[in-house]
Amino acid sequence: MKRSRELAAIGAAMVIATTLVASGPASGAEEGRGKPSEPSLTGSAKMLRKDGQDVRFTFDARGLFPESKGRFRVSHAGEGFSAYFQGRVDCLVVGGPVAVVTGIVEDTNVPELKDRRVGMTVYDHGRQDRVGYSWGPDPDNKQIVPPCLSAAPFERVETGDFKAVEWFPPGSGIS
């Protein structure tokens, strides 16, 4: 009886050890990647549009406001139209899995958007990401999007993926 208990204990220990080894490190920091040194939002995705419209977003944004930098691109094509704009990031804020990015449109085929600030929000939820945005043609410039503000992420991603990385400066009191 004592021998079977010893064998059972050894077997249980082996199962636990095998499980721990197979599961690998618990975090990216343990794998040698270290902790992030700035917030970021990267990736590209196509939105889910049942009517066949092709709406795509691409982000490569880094840095904590007011030192945020990077690029963004948005394209939207449907039956009989095609629009795009791209520009430079002027604000990025990431809290948990949600990133808000704003930027100034530098290149577009929609004249009303040239030199305007646009806002986009990304909810990084694995392969079920969502995107929201704030803009629209406004020739009188009455509806200005302020830095670091955008709409709730209401559109679903069909293909692609975004990665939002949260970071706040040490000693900021934000964790």
Number of helices: 1
**Helicity, as a percent range:** 10-25%
Radius of gyration: 23 Å
Mean pLDDT: 83
Number of strands: 8
**Strand order across the biggest sheet?**
1-2-3-4-5-6-7-8
| Terminal-residue CA separation | 53 Å
Give the SSE order as H and E letters: HEEEEEEEE
Shape: globular
As residue ranges, the low-confidence spans are 2-32
Derived structural class: mainly beta
The largest sheet is: 8 strands, antiparallel, barrel
Strand content: 35-45%
Report on this structure.
The chain is mainly β and 175 residues long. It is built from 1 helix and 8 strands, in the order αββββββββ. The protein has an 8-stranded antiparallel barrel with strand order 1-2-3-4-5-6-7-8. A hairpin with a 2-residue loop joins β3 (69-78) and β4. The chain starts with a helix and ends in a 10-residue tail after the last strand. The model is unreliable at 2-32 (pLDDT under 50).
In short:
By secondary structure, the chain is mainly beta. 13% of the residues lie in helices and 43% in strands.
Please describe the topology of this protein.
Elements: H1 2-23, E1 40-47, E2 54-62, E3 69-78, E4 81-95, E5 98-108, E6 117-123, E7 130-134, E8 155-165
Which features would summarize this protein structure in a list?
single chain; 175 residues; mainly beta; eight-stranded antiparallel barrel; 1 helix; 8 strands; globular
